[in-house]
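Known limitations

Files may contain more than one protein. Parsers should not assume a single record per file. Below, a two-record file is shown to illustrate correct handling: read the sequence, read the token line, then continue until end of file.
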Amino acid sequence: MNILFSANISTKLQTQLKEEYPDQSFLFFKNIEEAEDDLHKADILVTYGADLNETLIKKAKRLQWIMVLSAGIDQLPSHIIQEKNIMVTNARGIHKIPMAEYAISMLLQVYRKEKTLIQREKEQIWERSVTIQEITGRTMLILGTGSIGQEVARLAKAFQMTTYGISRSGKPAKYFDETYPVDQLEHLLPHGDFVISVLPSTAETKGLLTYDHFKKMPRHTVFLNMGRGDLVTSDHLLKAVQNEEIFHAVLDVFEEEPLPKDHPFWYEERITITPHLSGVTSMYQLRALNIFKQNLKAYIEGTNRYINKIDFAKGY
């Protein structure tokens, strides 16, 4: 069986895979361009997902399973994958620790005016008049109550926050004081000191937030999006910030990535931009490959006990 990697993983992890599965044939490449000529050999493809298109999938005539080393599948050529009946699994769940830490760190960054303090340090300015706020005791509204949302809520509890969750079903979830279905979103927005989105990109979530939603938030709200950039259009969000409907926006995901250099978001003092890295740390590949190895065991044994098997009808 040929297992082809178009995801560039460390030499150490490559060696571990070969030692753990000596009966399997591994083909390691740094990217899809290097891997393209060998795609026809692949029974299993391990990728970050964004490098695939319909033409490449058609070249992989033996392909039975795609393991995506990320949570997002919205960039996959899903039509041809379903047509060829190729199984897809992803690394959903591995991002909860780094993304929850990111969320808390960014809220602290905004409330403790760290941008201002760092700039004054660079300019050797000793000035103690900066107004610093505390995140403790605030109310957090989290859009998405899966593993990432629950971990964000868990850390929020360390700061004695009230946590509300929004999901498709509205079912109770750990670390949330209350959870509600999406149709209750507008009723909850006025209570959100912090509004955090970890939602994936699906037909239901695209364009979910509009300018009217931001108008319902308190003017001191910090909005943080680390789910998917198509949750809200750039124009609506920019208008909300410029009209001071919210206090600050922290954005790790965007409608267009990389964010163009001339995009107006770059010039807004009350927008913090990070380059889609909230879920990436030195532990990323190890955690993702642990899921892959569990699924590979199931694949070899034919047990069908797969973790994170994708249902394209749901979009995750």
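...continuing to the second record:
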Amino acid sequence: MIETLNRDCFCVSLDPDALRRAIEADPAARGLHRLIEERCPHLFAALPVFVSRRHADAMAGVIRAVESVAALPAYREAALQWAPVIARFDPGTAGAFMGYDFHLGADGPRLIEINTNAGGALLNTILARAQRACCEKIESFVTGPVPAADLERTYFDMFKAEWQSAGRSGLPKRIAIVDDAPEQQFLYPEFLLFAQLFHRFGVRAAVLDPTELSFEGGVLRDARGPIDLVYNRLTDFSLKAPTHAALRDAYLARAAVVTPHPRAHAIYADKRNLSLLTDAARLRSWGVDETTLDRLLRGIARTEMVNAPESDRMWAARRGLFFKPATGYGSKAAYRGDKLTRRVWTEILDGQYVAQELVPPGVRRTGPESGMKSDVRNYVYAGQVQLLAARIYQGQTTNFRTAGGGFAPVLMTPAPGGARRPPAAFGSRLDVAVAD
């Protein structure tokens, strides 16, 4: 059924007016929809991606398996061997918005990447509300284990959980959403949406460049005052850039809660870690049980380190491999093996790369004679899946540059008994926005 829907169903489509209303539901967001259209016109796909309940459960099972291994001291020590020194600092928090990216094929889902500052969750929540369907059966589909109406509360509770895990009480008074030159970032509209979300729950928020921060007298602040929590959207995962010194010093001094943080990236998102998670002998030596081991080996694209002693073998096998920089992001400097030149191969050998088994992406038909590639992202906190979303694209990697492509809702049949509700919310929602 699911394969048929992805091939032949064009009756569920994006309602542009509903999308605009959903984005600008808060009066403070007036004009934001126009900004999205101008800045990133191919951000939202016209059609959803259908995923079977079996595949959704399989992805959740792989995520649980990864989380169980990542909690092992032996795994953590191995992952920290190639991590920057700052990753050994443990802030005591899980890290917000983990992203587990899967390709779905005939043999089931295969994990290809883990990210620690996965963007798009709030945009995809709004997108799911803007879909329209022509039949009741499709309208009964759901977007994830948390009901769509509860997702914003779930996201806020995630940040509150980070705050409390760091030993704080109550709520942070002020949150900063931080990225380099944020107004120039592709997902800047989402930064603004998060600021509004925090406002709606009674917490002041601002979108800031890290150069606007200072750390003096044990307090992280900007020109308007102290900052208690930082939603970190930087791609400097170890906070090593000189312009990030204030944020780094405040993080290490526990003066502000920073999430996600360098340790989370080192434990989960460094692509070399996938070589640990697909090494059967090493996993067994750590005492991983056979059920978890089987789930990892079946559910993760096999990954190994690129090194000179294995270079001839890897070059010969390159057509079945995908090469990625160990600490890369956004598919930058990543290469399909069948596209490699000798010059690029030399650069790969000189750098820090992994070779990953080539797992074809899914296919979403966008018309009777046309189709595009797709992958599925699980937005996860502390091992629990919050939302599933897809990216539809053409070319080698997701790029948000193809007409008809972009973020797409994932639709799947409800679990028996209906969608699982999230844990009880902390506190009560405030209806009045608090201006920063």
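Parsers that stop after the first record will miss the second one. For reference, the second record is described as follows. The mean pLDDT is 89.
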